[in-house]
Amino acid sequence: MDKSKEILMLFKENEERAFRELFNSFYDNLLLYAIQFLNDSETAKDVVQDCFVDFYVNKRFNFIRIGLEQYLFQAVKHRAIDHIRSQQRREHRHQIVMTEICENVSSTANEQNELEAIYVAINQLPEARRKIFTMIYLDGMKYQEVADKLSISINTVKKQMGRAFKTLRENLQGLSFTAILMIYFKRVFQK
Fold first, then answer.
1. For residues 93 and 138, is the Cβ–Cβ distance under 8 A?
2. Are 154 and 147 in contact (CB under 8 A)?
3. Cβ 7 vs Cβ 22: under 8 Å
4. Which of 9, 40, 75, 110 is 20 to 30 Å from the Cα of 19, by its Cα?
5. In Å, how far are 1, 95, 111, 116, 189 from 147, measured between CA atoms?
6. 147 and 119 in a common domain
């Protein structure tokens, strides 16, 4: 009996032992496969780990109709492609936001100072709050996506965004904060 079939049968007896065997048998090859798509070993590790977690948590071993090895490689391929597409969307949104900021801010020294003040104010936010703010504002993620990615509640995301806006409003006065809000709401309502 081949290794894949042995592991699938072991899942019926002892899921934890089977999962360890699955991980030890396939991790290295799946990692090398993911690196071919992503060209980044750290991201590839995350993708492969996510596939293993999904496989175990959602008990995918109960639903495999093709070979285990084929299933795992397909799962890694699809997750890697999804990651690449997601990264491209984030980069595209970031370019749009940067273009809008540049269009709304002329090259006068005063306005350049305002743009710098925006970045300084954002960078002065507490680390967790800044991360949530940039994931939503610059990366274009939805509140629920951020909550899922950071393993926190959506209410925590909402509170942190509210606090981020409050802090920015206090630190940026007049046109700077208004420009942030205009760009943000314009982008949100276009979705």
1. yes
2. yes
3. yes
4. 40
5. 43, 24, 34, 29, 21
6. yes
Residues 75 and 111 in one domain: no
Per-residue pLDDT reduced to its tens digit, 2-41: 888 888 888 888 889 998 999 999 999 999 999 999 999 9
Cβ atoms of residues 77 and 71 within 8 Å? no
Would you state the structure tokens that stand for residue 76, as one six-digit string? 């890694």
d(CA 142, CA 158): 11
Are 59 and 118 members of one domain?
A: no
Structure tokens belonging to residue 30: 């799946």
pTM of the model: 0.52
Rounded to an integer, the average pLDDT of 119-139 is 84
Distances (CA, A) of 9 to 13, 17, 37, 64, 71: 7, 11, 31, 12, 16
Contacts of 1 (CB under 8 A, 6+ apart): 9
Contact 172, 118 (CB under 8 A): yes
- Whether 73 shows a pLDDT value over 90: the answer reads yes
Q: State which residues form the domain around 44.
A: 3-85
Q: Which of 99-103, 116-120, 123-127, 149-153 has the lowest average pLDDT?
A: 99-103
